[in-house]
Amino acid sequence: MKRIAVYPGTFDPVTNGHLDIVHRAARQFDRLIIAILRNQDKEPMFDLEERIRLLNDSVGDLDNVEVDSFDGLLVDYAMNVGASMIVRGIRALSDFEYELQMAMMNRRLQPGLEAVFMMPSETYSYLSSRLVREVATLGGNLEGLVPEVVRVALLRRHPAGGRRQAD
């Protein structure tokens, strides 16, 4: 039986912290699905199609990883794709409190679905998509924070960000 896991999120944009989790989770499961949440209430920097493209470009070297999108309940999506695990990244205690509540609700809704919490390496323990968007908007150096394809996409949106890339 294949071990299938879902790594859900908005990935707006995907960061090197996300990719750290993806690479490590891909070694643990036969199939890892990065599932981008389509949330009509949020106004993402990158539309869904662009986030899918950026993620595909960032994980193309991993044979057992695919990128998809979903709306509605995560547990319903996970069951539809045959997943038995949900992978979540945790950077800090505040993340854990939120993720624990979500995991317990998901278990209540679908008792056979487990949650696996992974911590990013220390290098990325502070990194979030929100911080990356802010650095890009304010013209900060994005090197080492995101894959090159994402850095280029951010610079296209925020050309002033290029002035400090050499810092």
Structure explained in plain terms:
There is one protein chain. With 167 residues, the protein is α/β, with parallel strands linked by helices. The chain has a single domain, classed as 3-Layer(aba) Sandwich (Rossmann fold). The protein has six helices and five strands, in the order βαβαβαβαβαα. A five-stranded parallel β-sheet has the order 3-2-1-4-5, with helices on both faces. The longest helix is centred in the middle third of the chain and has 17 residues.
Q: How do the strands and helices of this protein lay out in sequence?
A:
Layout: E1 4-9, H1 16-26, E2 31-37, H2 48-59, E3 65-70, H3 74-80, E4 85-89, H4 93-109, E5 114-118, H5 129-137, H6 148-157
Parallel strand pairs: 1-2, 1-4, 2-3, 4-5
Features:
167 residues, single chain, alpha/beta, Rossmann fold
* Net shape: globular
From the alpha-carbon coordinates, what is the Rg to the nearest angstrom? 16 Å
Terminal residue distance: 50 Å
Mean pLDDT: 92
Strand order of the largest sheet: 3-2-1-4-5
Poorly predicted segments: none
Order of helices and strands: EHEHEHEHEHH
Architecture, according to CATH? Answer: 3-Layer(aba) Sandwich
Classified by CATH, the class is: Alpha Beta
The overall strand count is 5
Task: Give a quick rundown of the structure.
The protein has helices at residues 16-26, 48-59, 74-80, 93-109, 129-137, 148-157; strands spanning 4-9, 31-37, 65-70, 85-89, 114-118. The protein is of the alpha/beta class and 167 residues long. Helix 2 links the parallel strand 2 and strand 3.
